[in-house]
């Protein structure tokens, strides 16, 4: 279907006549009630290019900052959540991003389609799955790329992510360093954020989680501390 810009003063047929005409620019401008610059524009384009060009921006502005886009991508990789579940989690921390914004971020990073889950477990009907009660929480740290902050400085930051195995509840926070103090602070934030008692914490063997301060915090909160192999 032929589409003409609503503010256009000429039709494709008139533009083709202008491009083919040998009359002066001023004569054509008076005849069609348009400016001389418009006449020159259609003459430059020629009779074969008389359709309106798209007014869509060639490059759409991002609604999310570079760091926010990195956080969305890391959450996708860490949780494997579908778009709707991921949107629900992200909007809790970044409420200005909607479903379309998040899909565009994933699309740009090549994460809009989740890879098929590897078939490494037992055959169907030959294995059992352990059930977990709410409170078995896995905490991990993701290294964000070196990004520019609001003050113009470029530095590396760290995304702490906590996921409950039963409810799939998620809590996250960004810190400037990966150390024991921030790990303890994040653990306290997770304990406050989740609406159930945390019974187990599963982490890797990173130095921020094997530090005495983190071990003591788990003990004081009555949390069973476990590590991945």
TrEMBL record:
Domain Integrase catalytic: 130-229
Signal sequence annotation: none
GO biological process, one term: DNA integration
GO molecular function: nucleic acid binding
PROSITE patterns: INTEGRASE
UniProt-listed InterPro entries: Homeodomain-like_sf (IPR009057), Integrase_cat-core (IPR001584), RNaseH-like_sf (IPR012337), RNaseH_sf (IPR036397)
Pfam families on file: rve
Highest taxon listed in the record's lineage: Bacteria
Name used for this protein in its record: DDE-type integrase/transposase/recombinase
Organism of provenance: Komagataeibacter swingsii
């Amino acid at each position: 279907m032929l589409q003409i810009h609503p503010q256009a003063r000429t039709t494709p047929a008139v533009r083709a006549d202008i491009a083919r005409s040998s009359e002066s620019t001023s004569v054509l401008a008076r005849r069609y009630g348009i400016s001389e610059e418009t006449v020159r524009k259609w003459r430059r384009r020629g009779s074969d290019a008389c359709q309106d060009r798209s007014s869509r921006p060639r490059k759409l502005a991002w609604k999310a900052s570079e760091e926010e886009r990195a956080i969305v991508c890391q959450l996708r990789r860490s949780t494997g959540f579908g778009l709707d579940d991921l949107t629900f989690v992200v909007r809790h921390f970044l409420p200005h991003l909607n479903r379309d914004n998040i899909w565009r971020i994933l699309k740009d990073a090549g994460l809009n389609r989740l890879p098929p889950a590897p078939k490494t477990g037992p055959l169907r009907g030959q294995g059992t799955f352990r059930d977990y009660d709410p409170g078995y929480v896995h905490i991990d740290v993701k290294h964000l790329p070196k990004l520019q902050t609001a003050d113009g400085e470029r530095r590396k930051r760290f995304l702490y992510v906590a996921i409950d195995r039963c409810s799939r509840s998620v809590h996250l926070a960004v810190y400037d360093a990966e150390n024991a103090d921030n790990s303890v602070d994040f653990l306290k934030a997770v304990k406050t954020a989740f609406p159930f008692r945390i019974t187990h914490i599963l982490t890797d063997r990173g130095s921020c989680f094997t530090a005495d301060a983190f071990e003591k915090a788990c003990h004081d909160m009555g949390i069973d501390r476990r590590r991945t192999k």
